Amino acid sequence: MPTARLLRRLSLVALLLVWLGASSQAASTPAPFATEPRGTFESRRTEVLEAAASEPRGGVSAQLAKIALGRGPLDETAIRASLDKITRRDDTADFDAVALLRLYRTETPLLSSELRRAIRDTLVRFKYWVDEPGTDLLSMWSENHQIGYHTAEYLAGQFFPGTTFTNNGKNGAWHRDAARTRLLRWIAIKAKVGFSEWDSNSYYPVTMAALLALAEFAADREVAQRATMLLDVMFFDIVVDSFRGSYGTSHGRTYTGTLTGGGRSEGTASLQFLAWGFGAPGGGDATVALATGKRYRLPRTIELLAHDRPDEFINRERQSLLIEDAKTFGLDYANPDDFWLLNEGGKFRTIEHIEAGYRVTDRWRETLHRYGVVIKPYGDAVLGTYRELARRGEPLPDLDRTSLQRVDKYTYRTTDYQLSTAQDYRKGAPGFQQHIWQATFGPDTPVFTFNPGPTAKYWQGRFPRSAQFKNVLIALYNIPAEQPPGPKTIGPSDAAGNAMPSPSPSEDTLVPRTSAVLRRALFDEVAQRGNWTYARKGSAYLALWSHAATAWSAKGVLGGEGLIAEGRQNIWLCQLGREAVDGSFTAWIDAIAAAPIESDIENLFVDYRAPGVGHVSFAWEGPLRIDGRVEPLGDYARFDNAYGHSAYGSGRYVINYGEHKLVLDFNTAERTESFTPFAPQP
Q1: What's the mean pLDDT in 47-63?
Q2: For the stretch 140-154, what's the b/e string if a residue is b when 16 or more beta carbons lie within 10 angstroms of its beta carbon?
Q3: Model confidence pTM above 0.70
């Protein structure tokens, strides 16, 4: 063969190898984050299942995805790891139990009869509630765990009704009926007041995975119907507080990696992608459950409004409750059946709440071991602090950092950005995993301020007094200089790992600074002028003002870049803008820089003439005023937005989009959807 021809053929082979390598790389590269609706439900379902099945540590959900794709063999090691976790009674074993029950019920030749028996035998030995025997470190009391254990117990009892569950000697039918009562009570209160772990991008998917299992498998029609209805509410909740697939809002519980990773790190991103096309495909128990389930389908009304992009959208909402609300909702904090439904509403907020709670939890001292390891030592320290303050004749502030009590939230969204906050939420109180406010420009660009907490787990320090009106937000920080008096938290010898009690009020680090998460490399432009920091992402603008001088830190703000402001008192002010309304970025910077600001750091007062908004004034005490008018910061409805108004506590939702209407009435178990077809165009 002539040399020239040989060289040409070798070149073609080389090009082919390069192309194949590039194709292989592209196939392994994660799908881009969709900020515009992508595909159909069926096409997205395939993407989600492919992503879930290929996750190296996908666990049981990865096996369910393989079954749905008809692709074997299953990873028996992953299944047995979940079985071992349940047998050891490790924390979050309820998550695995719900997933394994779904696997057990799935008809497939890929699951061996031996593994089916192992799943059954493991589940009938499990501990399902706080009153069952066993010394372990199971966490059962938080909201997502309550629904997890109730769901697992109900379905296991339904699947194995005549089998004796060896942990307490009751048969499956007994467990099914006991769990049914708990489930319906849990759903009823959440339907009225929302969630204590409000808008949690970490725990909503966990809760929804359990509800999806009930919607799919519950033989009792009422249980399945009410689980289905609450799923509708949760999907609506995600829609009205999300920006193009990013759940960029205030969260009752979240983690720093999830926050700083933006939309790509949120457990809701793959759920949103599957449900309405924003976000990115991925695994996760809830997403795989939605993809493989036959019964539950998202109402068309919610899917349509998820695609709606009005120039301006405002959502006001209220979630969670206070222990003092018990009688309003027919509950009693002293009743063990009601106790856990009220517990997050301020269990350590007063001496009376702590003492009343102990009278209930002490009866489970032998069976609720983790509570004694993690929660009670902190409660003892807070109680000791309150008693010492009372002895000194000093006022008793709210020092319950773990409280997830009632919250009023405000979200303002345009086609270019979203701003959201928990309005005036527990100002000056200590926090742990609550996220107060956030500006969102896309999946990679969250911006927010916070006071650093005492540990990585308890990353949130003292809360600001925050207030928002449309695209302007103010956060006032007042970090105490001295720790409260009182005892330290004394954990038992087996407190370790994530089973560690929270530091006491007297051990609070009270870090004398505030920080802003702002990763410059993820924005198109960043500039500073005086106390203002400006940033642009596409056609969206950010202006962030700090009363105290700020300095850039490369790695000192939740492990990445951001601004640090030293001082125990500070005022942060955030205003968002966009090209379509505010002109060029340069012109907008000039307008913001020229806007008058008066501030008093001693009295924590700010007066700002916000371009395009008006005269904004706010202080540590008193209302938020816009052009002299008082803007309400509380007493919101359950939902109040352009798609519907639902009164807090009513348990009734009417959601509208155009001619579509979805009615969810938990008082009558009504779930109806109707629409009037649009008239044909001439």
Answers
A1: 94
A2: bbbbbbbbbbbbbbb
A3: yes
